[in-house]
Amino acid sequence: EAGVAQSPRYKIIEKRQSVAFWCNPISGHATLYWYQQILGQGPKLLIQFQNNGVVDDSQLPKDRFSAERLKGVDSTLKIQPAKLEDSAVYLCASTLRRTGETQYFGPGTRLLVL
Amino acid sequence: EDKVVQSPLSLVVHEGDTVTLNCSYEVTNFRSLLWYKQEKKAPTFLFMLTSSGIEKKSGRLSSILDKKELFSILNITATQTGDSAVYLCAAQGGSEKLVFGKGTKLTVNP
Question: In whole angstroms, what is the distance from residue B81 CA to residue B90 CA?
Fold first, then answer.
C-alpha cells in the first residue's frame, strides 16, 4: 500500500513570497490533516478535511494560510505572504475514517523563509 | 485548553539500557493516546491506547495508559542505536484532533 505522498520535500523562499504544498493521501482515506511542526515542537494541527469538507480549521492563520481539497482526494496548502515564523515542516496525514483511527504521516515539506 | 506534556525532553543512554518516557495529558472528552517515533522524517505510528491498565507490546517497546492519573509511559528495553529518535505522544479528545507533546529526544550511544 502506497503511503502519504507530499511535494516538494524542501522549499526556500523569501518573506512575503507565496508557496504551495501538495499532499496525496493513502488511497481510500477520507480524512486528511495538515500539521505544522516547528523545530523542537510537536506537530500542531492546521486543518482537518473529511472528504472535501473542512472539519476543523480553528488553528489555521486564515489571513495568510489557505487549504483546499476540491475532489476529496489531493490537497494543497498555501501560504501567502510568508513570514519568517512560518519556517517549519509541514506534515500531511490521513486516516480511513474520522474517529479513533491511526493517522499515517507523509514525509513532510521542510520550508525555510528567509 | 487541551495540552500534552512529555518528559524528559531529552535523554542520552548507552546501548542495552532500559528507558521510560513519560506523557501526561489534559484533553476534553479523552478518546485515545498515541505514541509515534520520529526520525529525520515523518512520525511513524507505534501504539494507540484507549483502555487503562492494558499494556501494549511490540518487540522491545511497550506502553500503558492510566486514565485515572491522565498518564502514559513508553518503555524501551535493551535499547539499540536504531532507537535514537524523537518520541511523540499525542492525545485525541472530543474534537477528534490530535494534540501533540513536544517530544522526547532519545539518543542511544554505542
Answer: 24
Residues of A within 8 A of B42 (CB-CB) are 4, 91, 105-108
pLDDT tens digits, one per residue of A18-37 = 999 999 999 989 899 999 99
Look up residue A41 and give its amino acid: Q
Residues whose CB is less than 8 angstroms from the CB of residue B110 and which lie 6 or more positions away in sequence, other chains included: B14, B15, B81
Q: Give the type of residue at A10.
A: Y
Q: What pLDDT digit, counting tens, does each position of A64-114 carry?
A: 999 999 888 999 999 999 999 999 999 999 988 765 567 889 999 999 999
Option in B41, B44, B90 nearest A108 (CB):
B41
C-alpha–C-alpha distance, residues A78 and A56, integer Å? 17
Instruction: Write b or e for each residue in B27-61: b if 16 or more Cβ atoms lie within 10 A of its Cβ, otherwise e.
Output: beebbbbbbbbbeeebbeebbbbeeeeeebeeeeb
Q: Does A109 touch chain B (CB under 8 A)?
A: no
Calculate ∠ Cα B37-B5-A86, nearest 5°.
Answer: 70
What mean pLDDT do residues B30-57 have? 90
The 3-state DSSP class for residue B101 equals coil
B101–A99 CB contact, under 8 Å: no
- Reference B92, options B23, B5, B34; nearest CA is B34
How many angstroms away from the CA of A99 is the closest CA of chain B? Answer: 6
